Structure formats: structure tokens, C-alpha cells
Amino acid sequence: MNPYVNMGVGALLGTVFVLMSVSIASEGIFHSEAPEKEGFAIVAAEAAAEGGEAAGSGEAAVTPIATLLASADAGAGEAVFKKCQACHSGEKGGPNKVGPDLWDIVNRPVAGHEGFSYSAGMKTFAEGGKTWDFEHLNHFLLAPKKYVAGTAMGFAGLKKDDERANLIAYLRTLSDNPAPLPSPSAEGAEATPPAAPEGTAPAAPEAAPAAQ
How far apart are CA 156 and CA 118, in angstroms? Predict the structure, then answer.
């Protein structure tokens, strides 16, 4: 065999041997055992997941409407109603605009105003014979597109409890026979939001607060 080949092979084997020896020696010198107990546990991901489940398990708590209406001001609600008038009329026998006329809206069947073409989302929400009782109005006016998935109403909602309660108190007056106010003693039952279809949509620019 060529002596140069022998020298090359020997050099290669020697290099491999040296590298393996250094690797084994380094492992022995720098190796450390895993601690029996971690100094701290990273739980951010788990906590976030648990929070997500909690958030998705139901709607955020909303103050019962009976409590809100106990101190509501219908006169102040009439001023809030001006936000609605671009899309809704409020007089008896009033015309439908972008949204339906809101006369006698309290306890009216959902998607039940004659002559108005309701969105598919509102028709779905109406299934089961729902009516616009005080509690449904409270949740819907808080976040329309969250409470009724697919509604065509482009309104971001009234986030302030007093403003929303004042408006509902005023809507109650738009009737020949205003509905009785809910009793605050029933607020334990009202604390659970009425059933609504799931779904979330981005908030749209503020327009008119009513059922479309």
C-alpha cells in the first residue's frame, strides 16, 4: 500500500480519536445533574389557556337590569335616544327606516315588527319565541353584534350602565301600556344572561341602538 495513503489514514484515525477523547472528557467535566425540584415553573402558557377557556365559557357578568332600572332616568334616556333616530322612529305607527320603528318595543316579539326585513342573524336569534324583554334589551344594547351574531345593526353598543338603563327606561315609555318594571328582588335570576347564539364580530361605527 502507498505509504502516503497509510499516513493519511493514520492521521484521519488519530484526529477522530482525539475528538472523541475531548468530547468524553468535556462531558465528564461539565455535566450536571438535573435538579430534583425546579427553581420555578413556567406556567404562563397554561394560565393563558385556562383564562381563554374561562372567557369562552360564557358572557362577561352584566349588572341585572332590575337593579339598573331602579335608578334609571327616562328623561335622560330620551336624550340618548337621539343616537337612534337616524335609523329608527319611535312614534306610534311610525315608519321603518334603516331599522324598525321602536314604538312598543319592550316585550315585542324579536324580529316581529310588521313590514320590516330583518337580518338572518336576527331571525335565528328570534327562534323559540323570544321577546324584547328588559334583560334581552340590556344585553343587546351593551354589545349588539356579540349578543346577536349576524345582526345587521351597525352599532357598537352602550357600555355605560346608566346610559343604557336610561335608554331602556325611555323605550319603555314608548307604549300605550308601558310594561311593568322588573322587581329588583328577582335580580338573582336575571344575573344569568338569556341564551343567545354564539359568535363574535368586530364592533362597527356607532349608529342606532335597536333590533334589526
Answer: 19
Contacts (Cβ under 8 Å, ≥6 apart) of 186: 66
pLDDT digits (tens, 9 = 90+) for 31-48: 555 555 555 444 443 333
**Distance, first Cα to last Cα, the chain:** 95
State the cell numbers at 94: 311610525
| Domain boundaries along the sequence of the chain | 65-174
Mean per-residue pLDDT, 13-26:
70
Which of 23-27, 104-108, 202-206 is predicted with the least confidence, judged by mean pLDDT? 202-206
Distance of CA 97 to the CA centre of its chain: 28
Out of 3.40.50.300, 1.10.760.10, 1.20.1050.10, 3.40.220.10, the CATH code matching 65-174 is 1.10.760.10
CB 102 within 8 A of CB 171: yes
Whether the CB-CB separation of 170 and 103 falls below 8 Å is answered with: no
Task: Give the three cell numbers for residue 71.
Answer: 335608578
pLDDT 10s digits, 155-193: 889 999 999 999 999 999 999 999 999 987 654 444 445
Q: For residue 209, give Cα distances in angstroms to 28, 32, 80.
A: 73, 66, 10
Is residue 201 very low, low, confident or very high in pLDDT (cuts 50, 70, 90)? Answer: very low
Contact, 200 vs 149, CB < 8 A?
yes
